[in-house]
Amino acid sequence: MSDNRPFSPIRRRGLMLVLSSPSGAGKTTIARELLATDDKLDMSVSATTRPPRPGEVKGRDYHFVDIATFERMVAAGEMLEHAKVFDNYYGTPAKPVREALASGKDVLFDIDWQGTQQLGQSARGDLVSIFILPPAVEELERRLKSRAQDSDEVVRKRMAKAGDEMSHWPEYDYIVVNHHLDSSVASVKAILAAERLKRERQVGLPDFVNGLRSKT
Hints:
This protein is α/β, with parallel strands linked by helices. It is 43% helix and 22% strand. It contains 8 helices and 11 strands. A 5-stranded parallel beta sheet has the order 3-8-2-9-10, with helices on both faces. Strands 5-4-7-6 form a 4-stranded mixed beta sheet. The chain is globular. The chain starts with 10 loop residues before the first strand and ends with a helix.
């Protein structure tokens, strides 16, 4: 079937959509829902020095590397951001992200406040940041325990760190309190739709408007 729509000179530069939250607040679940329903959105695959968790696949969930490899990538300027979290290193390889943005694809990041700060320093115009808050501390602890992926000691560490993580909420563009998954996903989708329409992301828009004006 042919596409009879007229050619548009307007192209869109992609954006970097960051979701951050304390562990267990729901950012990873929200990210999965977005990726399942939006073919214009790709997940940024981070590099990490931590071992894989059950069910994680190398190259899909993370690039699992040793500390020496990670440090070499940082020294070579191959990371957009990097941080140490719970005794492990995490970072975002720069090349695939830059290529995606230039092609009009949006890139989703599941990173913490430290990584978000670094992205803001290097690419603020491409960044849209959302902080996901839990509805209550008790609910956060319940969600962490229900995952059954971490020991009681790790859960205690994550709860102790949650307060510090949540203190960085004013640094984000948007805040979503994750009372219910469906409504939280809808809120993030609405933010993404609006950000995609921002004037500065419409490549070729000035020429398009000038062309319209020349014919009036």
